[in-house]
Design goal:
This is Phage tail collar domain-containing protein. Helix content is 4%, strand content 23%. The chain has one helix and 13 strands. The chain has a four-stranded mixed β-sheet with strand order 9-8-7-10, with no helix packed on it. It is rod-shaped. The two termini are 18 Å apart.
């Protein structure tokens, strides 16, 4: 059943204490703070501390920490079908990833190798092409033109290569400012 929204005049003028909101400008409104992990004194924010506790940090004696959403995406708590269980305040993920060979699937490539159609004249592969064996151990022939004959296709195994450098692990994003209500209506549980 859908419940129609209350008219603007009937909606609360105050946010819920600890409520998070995104804004498209570079400051948080009065009564709100940027959700950037700063420490707040419990003595001046006891109601908010009763909601957040030390979920996001702090010593729990004299201070507590606000959530730090700088450079982070918020996800819901709990466990969806086939997903890991996520607890309130849990941090995860990385901005860049360096893959190891163990993380890459094994695979093969089919390649074609060109061979020179005459009898081999040298054992040195440098600057030469594969050629027909001449009864000895020779395997290459010198030529001023690239060969046009292809040998039968074979599977070529590929070994690990690469620069071992990290690559971006970020989804497309739009940066906005996260704010948390430092003042407001204390939320009821039902």
């Amino acid at each position: 059943m859908l419940v129609p929204a209350a008219p603007a005049s009937a909606q609360a003028d105050e946010p819920l204490l600890g409520q998070l909101m995104l804004v498209g400008y570079n400051f948080c409104p009065r009564g709100w703070a940027q959700a950037s992990g700063q420490l707040l004194p419990i003595s001046q924010n006891s109601a908010l501390f009763s909601l957040l506790g030390t979920t996001y940090g702090g010593n729990g004696t004299s201070n507590f920490q606000l959530p730090d959403l700088r450079g982070r995406a918020a996800i819901g708590i709990g466990q969806g079908p086939g997903l890991a269980d996520r607890v309130l305040g849990e941090l995860g993920g990385v901005e860049t990833v360096t893959l190891s060979l163990a993380q890459l699937p094994s695979h093969t490539h089919v390649g074609g190798v060109r061979a020179f159609p005459s009898v081999a004249t040298t054992t040195d592969p440098a600057g030469n092409y594969l050629a027909q064996a001449a009864g000895g151990n020779l395997a290459y022939a010198a030529s001023t033109t690239a060969p046009t004959n292809f040998m039968n296709p074979e599977t070529v195994s590929v070994s690990g290569a690469g620069g071992s450098q990290a690559h971006s692990n970020l989804s497309p994003y739009l940066t906005l400012k996260w704010c948390i209500a430092l003042q407001g209506i204390f939320p009821s549980r039902n």
